[in-house]
Amino acid sequence: MLKLESLSVFYGGIHALRNVDLEVADGKIITLIGANGAGKSTMLNSVMGLVKAASGRILWNGEDISGKDTRDIVSLGLVMVPEGRHVFPNLTVEENLRLGAYRRQDKAGVKADREKCYGLFPRLRERRRQPAGTLSGGEQQMLAVSRGLMTSPKLLMLDEPSLGLAPIVSAMIFDIIREINRNGTTVLLIEQNAYAALEIADYAYVLETGNITMENTGTALLNDEGIRKAYLGEG
After folding, report:
1. Pairing mode of beta strands 14-24, 55-60
2. Minimal CA–CA distance to 19: which of 9, 28, 34?
């Protein structure tokens, strides 16, 4: 599905990614963990065409999309939910969801997907006529994820979806990510909450100062002594 081959990216004069190789298999949850400044968000931005690669390739179903415009990348079925939510605060919940589907022409499908989002996040249905700026942080994250789902993505990329959320809300977000994946959407998850992220991952990568330093199944990394000391606060 998605494959990065020897991807190198400079960001603001910094060598943010160094010959990164990473693969996202169809139907899986793939997690990328790492400290602040490791290059995780830069990687997603480069996949979406927001940051240009210095070298290497980004392949989508075998097609090199490295030089494509972001709009064209979204049309292929890749969607990113950015860190910080970035909802439209003066628009209602429902208007935010409609904007997520702005490229779609299938009205019946859009309506069905909106109902699916309300099914995943009942609180959004209750607040569908409220301005998004009046929602709590957790509700705004629910809206950001739902807006991403309204594009009908093949690959949903989530950048720090639990950041700043209360533990109970964070746990609910991870449960929903599992549900989204069970419903057929492939997920690439970037997270600092390493325990929760590895717990739901089929496969995971560790990014340190722009380099992939480890990769394995989520379970294997969760049980790795070095990972437990570095990212889970043990030892």
Report:
1. unpaired
2. 9
Q: CA-CA distance, 92 to 98, in Å (whole number)? A: 10
Label the pairing between strands 155-159 and 186-191.
Answer: parallel
In angstroms, what is the C-alpha Rg of the chain?
17
pLDDT in tens, 100-155: 999 889 999 999 999 999 999 999 999 999 999 999 999 999 999 999 999 999 99
Give the start-end residues of each E strand in the chain: 2-11, 14-24, 29-33, 55-60, 63-64, 78-81, 155-159, 186-191, 203-208, 211-216
Residues whose CB is less than 8 angstroms from the CB of residue 19 and which lie 6 or more positions away in sequence, other chains included: 6, 7, 8, 56, 211
Considering only CA atoms, which of 91, 80, 70, 81 is closest in space to residue 144? Answer: 81
Right CATH for 1-68+188-235 from 3.90.960.10, 3.40.50.620, 3.40.50.300, 3.30.2130.30: 3.40.50.300
